[in-house]
């Protein structure tokens, strides 16, 4: 059983205080910019909650800006497959500075890009993109400010440059594969599956056991969110989303990785339930299908990455042995 993280009580208290402080801007964004602005601010909070514990503070601000830019790009690109695939691949490669600090820090950014690309066609305007970008950055800024006031240290797990480059390349391959596979299978909203993939796919420095643990956590989060979206009334869905935000902030700040993965998967997936055009039953089946497909792709790529890492390690040891007199 894992030991409680340092400052556990302070982190819990901070999380409880952060949610009301964040709800006010979310409600304000909903009133001023509608559900899209509220969702964008909410996503900024949820995604940045991992970055504040894995990136140094200057890079946290860069991460919030990067998430905002990727979200705006998704709104502008829309559902057109060729530019969407190019944007996803470039997004994965451009994340190299964050991957080097910690692969978990901004892991779901490509998924958020695709999530916004699936928004209604009427939303794909420069004004809508600017609204999403600003609201997303404000949400990230709120989370960074909360962590700064609490003086929480960042404790990232840095990757060597070759490993970071390989992880970024495989991330691009996996994200594009998930997008293509979900389209071929007739799923309209590929962003949900891509969230699951980005949460599960880990660099070779992590063990396969960790990857399977993350996969199970992602699947549990998705199943819980789907069940609530299909069977529960709107008030229960809203309550679940708020509790999911609290759990995400607490588990991310407290470095409870598997719980954080489950909370992010459930919380972001629940956001689609508040869209005016949402059809709970159809969306539920689609989310479950895309999440399971993405988890399978992530585990396959993680196993392949581990195989390559093992081969490189054996070759390095063999050369070192031959070089030894």
Describe this structure in words.
This protein is mostly helical. It has one domain. It has helices at 8-54, 57-77, 81-94, 96-101, 109-117, 126-150, 161-184, 191-200, 208-231, 234-253, 257-271, 280-323. The chain is globular. The termini are far apart.
Oligomer: single chain
Whole-number count of domains: 1
Mean pLDDT: 78
N to C succession of SSEs: HHHHHHHHHHHH
How large is the radius of gyration? 19 Å
| Percent in helix | over 70%
Largest sheet: none
What topology emerges from the helices and strands here?
Layout (H helix, E strand, L loop, with lengths): L7 H47 L2 H21 L3 H14 L1 H6 L7 H9 L8 H25 L10 H24 L6 H10 L7 H24 L2 H20 L3 H15 L8 H44 L2
Helix pairs in contact: 1-2, 1-6, 1-10, 1-11, 2-3, 2-5, 2-6, 3-5, 3-7, 5-8, 7-8, 7-12, 8-11, 8-12, 9-11, 9-12, 10-11
Question: What key phrases describe this protein's structure?
Answer:
325 residues; 12 helices; 80% helix
Summarize it.
The protein is an all-alpha fold. It has 12 helices and no strands.
């Amino acid at each position: 059983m894992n030991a409680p993280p340092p400052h556990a009580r302070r982190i819990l208290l901070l999380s409880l205080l952060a949610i009301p402080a964040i709800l006010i801007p979310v409600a304000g964004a909903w009133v001023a910019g509608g559900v899209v602005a509220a969702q964008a601010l909410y996503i900024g909070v949820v995604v940045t909650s991992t970055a504040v514990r894995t990136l140094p503070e200057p890079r946290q601000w860069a991460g919030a800006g990067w998430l905002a830019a990727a979200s705006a790009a998704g709104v502008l690109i829309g559902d057109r497959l060729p530019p969407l695939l190019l944007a996803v691949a470039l997004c994965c490669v451009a994340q190299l500075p964050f991957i080097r600090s910690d692969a978990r820090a901004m892991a779901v950014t490509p998924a958020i890009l695709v999530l916004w690309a699936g928004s209604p066609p009427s939303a794909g305007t420069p004004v809508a993109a600017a609204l999403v970008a600003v609201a997303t950055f404000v949400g990230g800024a709120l989370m960074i400010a909360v962590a700064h006031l609490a003086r929480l240290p960042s404790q990232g797990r840095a990757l060597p440059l070759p490993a970071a480059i390989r992880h970024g390349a495989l991330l691009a391959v996996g994200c594009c594969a998930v997008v293509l596979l979900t389209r071929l299978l007739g799923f309209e909203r590929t962003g949900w599956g891509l969230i699951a993939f980005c949460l599960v796919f880990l660099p070779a420095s992590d063990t396969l056991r960790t990857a399977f643990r993350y996969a199970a956590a992602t699947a549990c989060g998705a199943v819980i969110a789907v069940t609530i979206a299909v069977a529960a009334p709107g008030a229960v869905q809203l309550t679940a989303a708020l509790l999911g935000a609290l759990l995400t902030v607490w588990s991310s700040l407290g470095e409870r990785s598997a719980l954080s993965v489950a909370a992010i998967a459930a919380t972001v997936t629940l956001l689609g339930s508040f869209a005016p055009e949402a059809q709970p039953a159809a969306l539920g089946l689609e989310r479950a299908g895309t999440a399971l497909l993405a988890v399978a792709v992530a585990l396959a790529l993680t196993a392949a990455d581990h195989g390559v890492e093992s081969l490189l390690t054996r070759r390095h040891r063999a050369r070192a042995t031959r070089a030894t007199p």
